[in-house]
Automatic annotation (TrEMBL):
Keywords: Aminotransferase, Pyridoxal phosphate, Transferase. Its EC number is 2.6.1.1. PANTHER family: AMINOTRANSFERASE, ASPARTATE AMINOTRANSFERASE. This is aspartate transaminase. It comes from Peteryoungia algae. It is an enzyme of class 2 (transferase). The lineage of its organism: Bacteria, Pseudomonadati, Pseudomonadota, Alphaproteobacteria, Hyphomicrobiales.
Length: 388
């Protein structure tokens, strides 16, 4: 009999389970529209595709340095200068197999078993599961209107007192999943300064940078060099399946991360690195996709409340609407399954993001096309019970 480790006993990623069922239905010929996962509706940029084709024709795709291709790391450093007017030594940049690998590398390099790390609730469920699987203590900090839907020094202090721990790490995402929150520069600086004063490492998840709509977009690098930055080509660059991301590290953390990466991943895929380097030049094409996301957002900001699904947080960034489903259910998991079964629209139960209150919420991704947004909400309008 196989013995299964306790560390593997993590909560399922329900969005992925919903996606799997949606895929099965689509393969069976059902007209499924998926608003369940953050999968851009736009393909990878043409420049990235062309670079990958040429590389494949050359026939020599192999390992790179564990830290990534020098040209890509240098280009990313230049991108920080261009987009954020900050100077970053390219030697501090590590290319990773998606942001997921970046989180693994950060947690393994920074923390020991039993250390406490704070995350926002609601927040991305993989944070919770990865931390738990690594034997770390997860401190979930409730965010809402009183905190500006982001972490604050005050909320972190309260959470430590309630949990009876001292934090070793704080993970803050901006723009955030599922709330769409964009943490302002003032808010981010307050958390950064708090962490510095308390000897806490701040990990700044910036994978939705590029997808903000009128709000300021601040990288923690604008505030100081002691945060760990995690980013990805999956969202703004429309390259989810390429599994390519990057980290920006304090200089003293580069070698420890490199050593762990050498054994866990050897290197990020060279083909994806080549495509990612080309994608950095595709700003015009990518800004068109961002404009499409903004149009979807504007449509859903009006449409969802009209359906009886009011917004729980502002839709300032990323491509998610986090909505209150209490008019229709107090079990968002069962409700999401029923929606898929009866309307062929896939949405994500809030239970993924908030173990305490998520049974009352749904998350809808608007990363697809406007036609999909219109059709999906038309189906929901016909299906949802009316109160009048």
């Amino acid at each position: 009999m196989i013995s299964i480790s306790k560390r593997s006993a993590v909560e399922p990623f329900h969005a992925m389970d919903i996606l799997a069922e949606a895929t099965r239905r689509r393969q069976a010929g059902r007209p499924v529209i998926s608003m369940a996962v953050g999968q851009p509706g736009h393909p990878a940029p043409q420049a990235a595709l062309e670079a990958a084709r040429k590389a494949l024709e050359g026939g020599r795709i192999g390992y790179t340095d564990a830290l990534g291709m020098t040209g890509l790391r240098q280009a990313l450093a230049e991108e920080y200068r261009r987009r954020h007017n900050v100077s970053v030594d390219w030697n501090r940049i590590v290319v990773t197999t998606g942001s997921s690998a970046g989180f693994n590398l950060a947690f393994l390099s920074l923390f020991d078993v039993g250390d406490a790390v704070a995350i926002a609730r609601p927040g991305y469920p993989a944070y919770r599961s990865i931390l738990a699987a690594l034997g770390l203590k997860v401190v979930e900090v409730a965010v809402g209107p009183d905190t500006g839907f982001t972490l604050t020094p005050e909320s972190l202090e309260r959470a430590q007192a309630e949990a009876g721990v001292r934090l070793k790490g704080v993970l803050l995402a901006s723009p955030a999943n599922p709330t769409g929150t964009v943490t302002t520069r003032v808010q981010l600086k307050a958390v950064y300064d708090y962490c510095q004063g308390q000897g806490i490492t701040l990990i700044s998840d910036e994978i939705y940078h590029g997808l903000t709509y009128g709000s300021e977009e601040t990288t923690a690098l604008e505030i100081g060099d002691e945060a760990v930055i995690i980013n990805s080509f999956s969202k703004y660059y429309c390259m989810t399946g390429w599994r390519i991301g990057w980290m920006v590290l304090p200089q003293e953390l580069v070698r420890p991360v490199e050593c762990v990466a050498q054994s866990l991943y050897i290197s990020a895929p060279e083909l994806s690195q080549i495509a990612a380097l080309a994608a950095l030049s595709a700003t015009v094409e990518l800004e068109h996709y961002k404009a499409a996301c903004r149009a979807n957002r504007d449509f859903l900001m009006d449409r969802l409340p009209a359906l009886g699904l009011p917004l729980l947080s502002p839709m300032d960034g990323a491509f998610y609407a986090y909505v209150d489903a209490t008019r229709f259910t107090n079990d968002s998991m069962a409700f999401a399954k029923k929606i898929l079964a009866e309307t062929d629209v896939a949405v994500t139960p809030g239970r993924d993001f908030d173990p305490a209150e998520g049974h009352l919420a749904l998350r809808l991704s608007y990363a697809g096309t406007m036609a999909e947004m219109v059709e999906a909400t038309d189906r929901l309008e016909k299906w949802l019970p009316r109160s009048d």
